[in-house]
Write a structure and sequence with these properties.
The complex is a heterodimer. In chain A, 53% of the residues lie in helices and 19% in strands. Chain A contains 13 helices and 8 strands. Chain B is an alpha/beta fold. Chain B has 5 helices and 5 strands, in the order βαβαβαβαβα. A 5-stranded parallel beta sheet of chain B has the order 2-1-3-4-5, with helices on both faces. In chain B, β3, α3 and β4 form a beta-alpha-beta unit. Chain B is globular. The interface between A and B is medium-sized, with 34 and 24 residues.
Chain lengths: 288, 120
C-alpha cells in the first residue's frame, strides 16, 4: 500500500509517471513473497496449515502471522524471522526507484520530508507509513471520528486487500451532509450499533471488485455487478458484526440493496473514503 | 454425489455455489430466490440437500427452515450466512439445520459441509 501512497504523491509532483509506478509495483509483486510461502519453505508450517490460515483470515480480522502464532504453528521469534525475510515494502520500493534511476536516495529523503510537511504528519506517522502495516496506516487517512466508523472502514480495506486485490490504496476520508447517487450498493446494520455501509462507484473499481468476488468478468455496472458487490459488502459487514458480537453487542444485518439512494442527514454523519484499486476509483461510505 | 437445491436471493451467491458443487460432481436440481420458493421447490424436486441463505427479503431462511422441517423432518438443510449472525445460527440449530456455510465461500468448506450433511 505504501508504494501507491508515495508513488502517487511523486506522480503529482512530476517526479515519475503512472507507467513508471505501475512497472515498479509489478516488479515488486514478483519480488515480494507471501508470508505463508516463506513459513512453508523455512519448514515452520505445512502447506495444509498455510491454507488453513488463509481460509481463517477471510473469516476473522487478523493477520496471517498472528493466526499462525495463535494456533501454535510458529513461535513469535519465528514470526519475526519470516517477516524479516519477507522484507520491508517501503525499502524495496525505494530501492526499485533508485535502481530505475527515477530518484536518488537523497532525493527520496527530500520527497519524504515534503510529504510529511504537506500532510501534517510527525515522525511517528511517517514510521507507520514506512511499516506498510495496513492496520496502522488506515487511521492516518481518517479524520477524527467515532471508533465504530473507524473499525468498519479498517475491516473493509483489509478485506479488499485480502480477498480482492493487493493493489489498493486510500485517499483521505471526508464527511458530507448529503449524498445522492445512482451507482451504489448498501447494507444496514441494526441493533446495538446502527449504521449503513455502502460502495459507491466512481471509475470502475466497483466493477473490478464485483468481478473478482463473483469469479467472473464484469464490464458494466449492471444488476449482476451490483449484486456481487452487495454480497462482498455483506461479507465485510459480517466480519464487523462478528467483532461486535465478541464485545457482546448484538446486531442484525438487513439484506443488501442496490441502485439509487439519497441521504440528507440532520444528525449523524456520512463518511466517504476514496479507494483506488488498480488505478480505478470507488468510495466506501459509512452513514451513521 | 447429491441432488442439491440452492436458495439464495443473490444471483452471485447462487452462481458461486453452483460452480463449487457442480465442480465436485453434485447435481443442482433447482434454484430459489426466497424462503417461499425453498419449501415449494423442495416439495416438487425432493433434493437430498437444500442450501438456504439466512438473510433474504420477503421470507428469510429461518422461517423457511421451520416450514421445510415441518414438511419433512428428515430434510437436510445447510444454512448460508455471513459472520456476525450468531443468534440466528443458534436459532437455526434449534430448528434443525444440518450444517452452516459462512460467506465468503471457500470451496473446501462448502464441500465439507455437504459431505457432513450427507453423512447425517
Amino acid at each position: 500500500m505504501v508504494e501507491y501512497i508515495l508513488g502517487n504523491y511523486m506522480i503529482s509532483k512530476g517526479i515519475m509517471s503512472k507507467e513508471q509506478l505501475d512497472n515498479v509495483c509489478d516488479r515488486q509483486d514478483k519480488i515480494r513473497v507471501k508470508l505463508g510461502l516463506i513459513a512453508v519453505s523455512e519448514g515452520y508450517i505445512t502447506v495444509k496449515q498455510a491454507e488453513e490460515i488463509n481460509r481463517q483470515q477471510a473469516l476473522c480480522d487478523k493477520r496471517f502471522g498472528d493466526i499462525a502464532v495463535e494456533k501454535g504453528y510458529i513461535t513469535p521469534p519465528q514470526l519475526d524471522r519470516i517477516l524479516k525475510l519477507q522484507g520491508n515494502t517501503y525499502l524495496i520500493f525505494v530501492q526499485s526507484l533508485v535502481d530505475e534511476g527515477i530518484i536518488s536516495i537523497e532525493g527520496m529523503d527530500e520527497i519524504m520530508e515534503q510529504f510529511r510537511r504537506e500532510n501534517g504528519y510527525g515522525n511517528s506517522e511517517m514510521e507507520v507509513l514506512k511499516s506498510d502495516d495496513v492496520e496502522r496506516i488506515i487511521p492516518l487517512f481518517l479524520p477524527s471520528m467515532e471508533k465504530e466508523i473507524e473499525d468498519v472502514i479498517s475491516i473493509a480495506v483489509k478485506m479488499i486487500l485480502r480477498c480482492i486485490d493487493r493493489h489498493v490504496y486510500p485517499e483521505r476520508a471526508f464527511f458530507v451532509d448529503k449524498l445522492s447517487t445512482e451507482n451504489m450498493v448498501m447494507q444496514t446494520i441494526e441493533g446495538g450499533v446502527n449504521m449503513t455501509t455502502a460502495f459507491l462507484e466512481e471509475s470502475g473499481a466497483m466493477i473490478l471488485l464485483a468481478g473478482t468476488y463473483a469469479r467472473e468478468e464484469f464490464s458494466v455496472l449492471d444488476e449482476d455487478t451490483l449484486d456481487a458487490a452487495g454480497e462482498f459488502l455483506n461479507c465485510i459487514n459480517g466480519l464487523y458484526t462478528a467483532a461486535l458480537e465478541n464485545k457482546s453487542i448484538a446486531t442484525d444485518l438487513i439484506p443488501p440493496e442496490y441502485g439509487s439512494a439519497e441521504w440528507q442527514l440532520d444528525e449523524g454523519m456520512i463518511c466517504k473514503l476514496p479507494l483506488w484499486i488498480r488505478n480505478k476509483k470507488m468510495y466506501f461510505v459509512v452513514i451513521k | 454425489m447429491a441432488n442439491i437445491l440452492i436458495v439464495d436471493d443473490s444471483k452471485t451467491s447462487r452462481k458461486i455455489l453452483r460452480g463449487i458443487l457442480e465442480g465436485a460432481g453434485h447435481v443442482i436440481v433447482g434454484e430459489g430466490t426466497n424462503g417461499e420458493e425453498a419449501f415449494l421447490k423442495y416439495k416438487e424436486l425432493k433434493p437430498d440437500i437444500v442450501t438456504l441463505d439466512i438473510t433474504m427479503p420477503k421470507m428469510d431462511g429461518l422461517e423457511a427452515l421451520q416450514i421445510l422441517k415441518k414438511q419433512d423432518e428428515n430434510a437436510r438443510v445447510i444454512m448460508i450466512t455471513a459472520l456476525g449472525q450468531k443468534e440466528k445460527m443458534i436459532q437455526a440449530v434449534k430448528f434443525g439445520a444440518s450444517e452452516f456455510i459462512t460467506k465468503p465461500f471457500e470451496d473446501d468448506d462448502v464441500l465439507k459441509a455437504v459431505n457432513k450433511a450427507l453423512e447425517n
